[in-house]
Amino acid sequence: MTDNRTLTSRFPHLKQDFAASLVVFLVAVPLCVGVSVASGAPAELGLVTGIVGGLVTGLMRGSSLQVSGPAAGMTVLVYEAVQEFGLPVLGVIVLASGAIQIAMGLLRLGRYFRAISVSVVEGMLAGIGLVIIAGQLYPAMAAKAPDSGLDKIAELPGTLVDSFGDTGALSSLAVAAGTIAVLLLWKHAPEKVRTVPGPLAAVGLATLAVFALDMPVATVEVQGLLGSVQPPPLSAFGELAGIGLLGTVVAFTLIASAESLFSAAAVDRLHSGPRTEYNKELIAQGTGNMVCGALGALPMTAVIVRSAANVQAGARTKASRVLHGAWLLLFAALLPDVLAYIPIPALAGILIHAGAKLIPVRSLGSLWREHRGEAVVLAVTAVSIVAVSMFEGVLIGLALAVAKSAWEASHVKLDVVDEGTGPIEARLTGNATFLRLPKILDSLESLPQDRPVRLDLSGLHHVDHACRMAMDNWAARHSTAGTDPVKLVTAA
């Protein structure tokens, strides 16, 4: 009795955290495996990343209820890296990204990620979602997906038509469709049934159906936990001298950090506990990624699906996410052969559903009506990711967002009061920058040449050098037309 009281006093929320950890574990298993397979890596590596996310990152300070592991949002980038550089070099990329994240956290740069345009982030996630959906429709039809995003979309109709004449493809498609149907309908199931997480129920039912009906469907290849963990060889670190690899490291770092910190902000809105310390969270994510890289595993980010499940299951402290990592370790160590029964199209269905949730379909209409510029940034970012690549698409989105902000910040207005006699009163308000210089000059040069002008600049918040020189030159030209010199009024 005394021991129980001591344990309760030291861990007052142990019961809630224990229950929440089991829920998160059950949600994490199919997602970890699905993300790993979709990334072109052994299924066990996704579990390794989930274990590190729980036992390493979970113990560190930052965001107390956020859960980390392999994320669908990184699938496209990881797949491209594995195809271009190979699985051994993936560990080097993840390790280097983690080191940069730690440096950024120590330099207190975590809070600056909050300044990234929300439209760029949503566009990034929407683009990733589109590529995931297009890419996973191929394993759903027992077909090999093309490499580029555009080819994935362009070849879908032909692949779908071909699948109707193939029994294996139709069986695979039926399993994927059934998995998605379970995920969509699970929220309508009785409350007691819904104690089993939707992703686990969907994969479990698909596995039972394939086994019971003896369906000709591909299943996960199992190598064993120790067989899958392959630390990167020393020779792989020489690849860091290449510009292409460095660009991939930067892409991993920025996208993983942005996804983690935006997830932290979202999780903070779900509970009333301690708020996220962004720089410490960045260090925690970096530490986890360095460990994942050293083990040759997938990169980790904070994952909103698992984090939300953690909060909704009643978690109170970081103990829940640490325990979920322990359950993943026990599962991977004791029951790895269970993975061999999971159908590949069921995992494809899980990821298609996850990809669809990344696309902000409901908010697009209101965003277009209220902030068309932001909607354009979102759409351009998403399309660029599909058409070009993840990294270039995000850069295009960021550049467009900066250009849009600069254009809006340079708003300037000219009010003219002409009473027919006396000087013309002209007043400029806003920000006079070179971006609006043509408009300013057109407005000033349209004023009558034979009338004196009083130009009031006191309403300008900012005047750059180009605009000031141009207005001085206009005033000098206007004053040579035989009228009184232009009178410039500036702020005191």
TrEMBL record:
Keywords: Membrane, Transmembrane, Transmembrane helix. InterPro entries: SLC26A/SulP_dom (IPR011547), SLC26A/SulP_fam (IPR001902). The chain crosses the membrane at residues 18-38, 85-107, 119-138, 168-186, 198-220, 240-262, 326-356, 376-403. Residues 14-381 form the SLC26A/SulP transporter domain. It comes from the Bacteria. PANTHER family: SULFATE TRANSPORTER. This is Sulfate transporter. It comes from Streptomyces rubradiris (Streptomyces achromogenes subsp. rubradiris). The gene is ychM.
